[in-house]
Amino acid sequence: MTKEKIKKEKTLHTLHSVHSRKLQGAITSTLTHLPSFSFFFFFKKASSFSVCTMMGSGDTSSSSDFFCRRHVFLCYKNPAVWPPRIEAAEFDRLPRYLHAAINARKPHIKKETCLTICEGHDGTETSNGDVLIFPDMIRYRRLTHFDVETFVEEVLVKEGEWLPGNPESLKASYVFVCSHGSRDRRCGVFGPILVSRFREEIELHGLQGKVLISSCSHIGGNKYAGNVIIFGSSNNREVTGHL
Predict the structure, then answer these.
(1) Are 232 and 175 in contact (CB under 8 A)?
(2) Which pLDDT tens digit goes with each residue over 87-126?
(3) CA angle 203-204-209, nearest 5°?
């Protein structure tokens, strides 16, 4: 092992230790305020902006350089099998086709739209092929690569409904943590730690079903801190989010 590699390993270990000591209080504080959203929000209502990048395709030193008014999450497999560039993966047709269709229709999509991949587990709230749309707080089930162009046209361009699937209203708060290790090793180290600790705290506070946690593809913007995006509805039905 080279001196440079040893130095990097020591840096990651040190950061891991520091983050672990601070993580408990930070996550507890976050989850305590999630149901009511009395604070901890980055944007409010669909007319304002949230920060994101297009499916991890943007490399940025500051995530605040990227804004969108609609954030689309495609539920698809898990970080262990995500290639570095999911949108360009030859054998992952669904994310590749969806990314291409959004780009192709970009001039005709009124709301600036971002696409990110999150975990998909069949038979759960986020099954493979499900599409979550924020801040609309809706979900479409079982999108396939055959449906992509119609879906983009009807939902994102015309802002209507995709008739083969009925949009479901999302009631829970959704927490997405960048864990895209094949894209950035640091995300692969810190992301799973954050996801695990969030799950522990969700169970401890009895928030199962009210707060859902998922790994997501690369967001960018912070060199070592884990990137977390949160979406949810407050008691007065206003949609809020935070990065």
Answers:
(1) no
(2) 888 889 999 999 999 999 999 999 999 999 999 999 888 9
(3) 30
CA distance 189 to 182: 11
DSSP secondary structure code for residue 102 in this structure: H
Asked whether 232 and 240 are in contact (CB, 8 A), the reply is yes
- Predicted confidence at residue 149, as pLDDT, reads 97
- Token readout for 97 is 């086709």
pTM: 0.77
**Cα–Cα dist 104/228, whole Å:** 28
Instruction: Give dist(CA 131, CA 74) in Å, integer.
Output: 5
Nearest-Å Rg of the Cα atoms of the chain is: 18
User: Residue 44 class from Cβ within 10 Å (0-12 exposed, 13-18 middle, 19+ buried)?
Assistant: middle
Nearest CA to 99 out of 46, 57, 142, 141 is that of: 57
